[in-house]
Design goal:
This protein has a domain at about 10-50 and about 195-215 and about 225-235 and about 245-275: Aspartate Aminotransferase, domain 1. It has helices at about 55-65, 75-85, 100-105, 175-195, 200-210, 230-245, 265-275, and strands at about 1-5, 20-25, 25-30, 35-40, 90-95, 110-115, 135, 145, 150, 155, 215-220, 225, 245-250, 255-260. It has 7 helices and 14 strands. Mean pLDDT is about 85; it is low at about 1-10.
Length: about 280
């Protein structure tokens, strides 16, 4: 999937959350004893959950070798090889932060975020008519700034793209970031068959009954987006409402709600009820 970038840079709604002291799978545990179902998943960087065992092992092994500094390292090649598995035939550049030129390309519609698990036939293939620059959102350590990944920003560039030369050379990155990102891509590929066909029948039914409500959701696979962009005030009200009920929405409306890979029947029923009766937007 691609998502046209809207340039949001406000994450202040996260300050409404209680302090999080632990995260397991798709659940967050707070200092005041609450449990929240994570529907943001760090913009997709936690799409496999917050504690994937292979990523934790990769983090521990790489950190134990003291590989924090952004020195040249063979892990860069490993990450580029992993990227080529999902973006065959594309060129790649890696940055510690999105360069200003990328914001310009996003505003022109020439760059977009790429998200996994959307096409059941080819969950990790590049969509048809994709923009010439794709920015993959993959599991790992990632922040966000102005709607773009921050901390490790990879670009998959169509080799025929005439403006590619305007992008600066790539950065050296910490091997810890490279190791996690490479492992994350291979984990996405391994998880693709089981994540290609989400079920959640209660949520599917709730979305059908949602069409006359103030806020209307549309679904693509694991992702829910709004049919009409809400005002910041309406999104803040919706964020608070879901938070009060034990669910964390994305802090900015342009990022999709991501259904968790695991929900108990009770959690699904509760979320379905919220989606079917969304009147707080």
């Amino acid at each position: 999937m691609t998502e046209q970038l809207l340039g949001d840079n406000e994450f202040s709604l996260l300050r409404l959350m209680p302090t999080v002291v632990r995260a397991r799978d798709f659940r967050l545990y707070t200092k005041d004893g609450r449990r929240l179902i994570d529907l943001w998943q760090n913009g997709g960087a936690a799409v496999l959950g917050h504690t994937p065992p292979s990523l934790l092992r990769e983090l521990k092994n790489t950190a134990s070798r003291g590989l924090y500094a952004p020195f040249p390292h063979f892990l860069e090649g490993r990450y580029l090889k992993a990227l080529s598995r999902i973006f065959p035939g594309r060129n790649f550049r890696l940055y510690a932060a999105p360069p200003p030129e990328l914001h310009t390309l996003a505003a022109e519609g020439r760059a977009a975020l790429w998200r996994p698990f959307l096409d059941s036939a080819a969950p990790l293939a590049v969509p048809e008519n994709a923009p010439p620059v794709l920015i993959p959102v993959v599991p790992g350590i990632q922040g966000w700034r102005n709607g773009l990944p921050y901390g490790l920003c990879a670009l998959a560039i169509d080799p025929t793209f005439e403006k590619a030369a305007s992008l600066p050379p790539g950065d050296f990155l910490s091997p810890i970031l490279l190791a996690l990102a490479a492992r994350g891509i291979y984990d996405l590929i391994a998880a693709a068959p089981q994540r290609a066909q989400p079920a959640y029948p209660r949520i599917a039914q709730a979305l059908k009954s949602n069409q006359s409500n103030t806020v209307q959701w549309q679904r693509q696979g694991w992702y829910l987006t709004l049919r009409q962009a809400p005002s910041p005030e309406n999104w803040a009200a919706l964020f608070r409402h879901f938070l009060d009920k034990g669910f964390l929405l994305p802090p900015v409306a342009s990022q999709p709600l991501i259904l968790p890979g695991v929900l108990s029947p009770g959690e699904e029923a509760k979320l379905a009820g919220l989606l079917a009766d969304t009147t707080h937007g």
